[in-house]
Amino acid sequence: MAYKPQVGAQMASPNVIPMADIMLVLLIIFMVVTPMLQKGVSVDLANVNNPHDMKDADKDDAIVVAVTRDGKIYLGNTPLTKEDITSQVKDRLSARLDKTVYVKSDARAKYGDVVAVVDEIRSAGVDQLGLLTEKNQKEKSTPPPPSAD
């Protein structure tokens, strides 16, 4: 007679506790890392119906000037005064082939502040200037044309 070891009782359901632990750790990692992924200063962009797609503005070496609603000006994450914009933009554009500068302004920023920033950027010798906006989420759907019956 051969020896047959006794097998314990088997569970019919899988053990999900280790998986839940891993998911919680991943959630915490993503919650910590996500705010660090944002480039530049956060502003509420103006909503428009027909925006132009500017994929180059998302590049790491893109020159983005931000105007906040209280009139503060940032080049990337660096705060600037209106007088320093021209020299800073000239310095950043000196060794580049693509001389495009992108301006993102808060939807509630004063129009005069944005125009002054654009003028300062233009005086730095920039020919290509992009104004960053967001696509309007509430698109008005046009009704279908009436039938010819």
Short description, anyone?
The protein is of the alpha/beta class and 149 residues long. The chain has helices spanning 17-33, 85-93, 111-123, and strands at residues 47-48, 63-67, 73-75, 78-80, 100-105, 128-132, 134-135.
Structure description:
- The protein has 149 residues and is α/β, with parallel strands linked by helices.
- It has 3 helices and 7 strands.
- The chain has a domain at 47-135: Nucleotidyltransferase, domain 5 (2-Layer Sandwich), CATH 3.30.420.270.
- The strands form 2 sheets. The chain has a 5-stranded mixed β-sheet with strand order 4-3-2-5-6, with helices on one face.
- The model has no long low-confidence stretch (mean pLDDT 84).
Largest sheet features: 5 strands, mixed
Task: Indicate the overall shape.
Answer: elongated
> Under the CATH scheme, which class of the domain at 47-135?
Alpha Beta
Provide the gyration radius in Å: 27 Å
The H-and-E topology, N to C, reads as HEEEEHEHEE
Average of pLDDT: 84
Annotation field: number of helices? 3
Low-pLDDT regions:
none
What are the key terms here?
26% helix, 149 residues, 5-stranded mixed beta sheet, two-stranded parallel ribbon, alpha/beta, Nucleotidyltransferase, domain 5, 7 strands
SSE arrangement:
Layout: H1 17-33, E1 47-48, E2 63-67, E3 73-75, E4 78-80, H2 85-93, E5 100-105, H3 111-123, E6 128-132, E7 134-135
Parallel strand pairs: 1-7, 2-5, 5-6
Antiparallel strand pairs: 2-3, 3-4
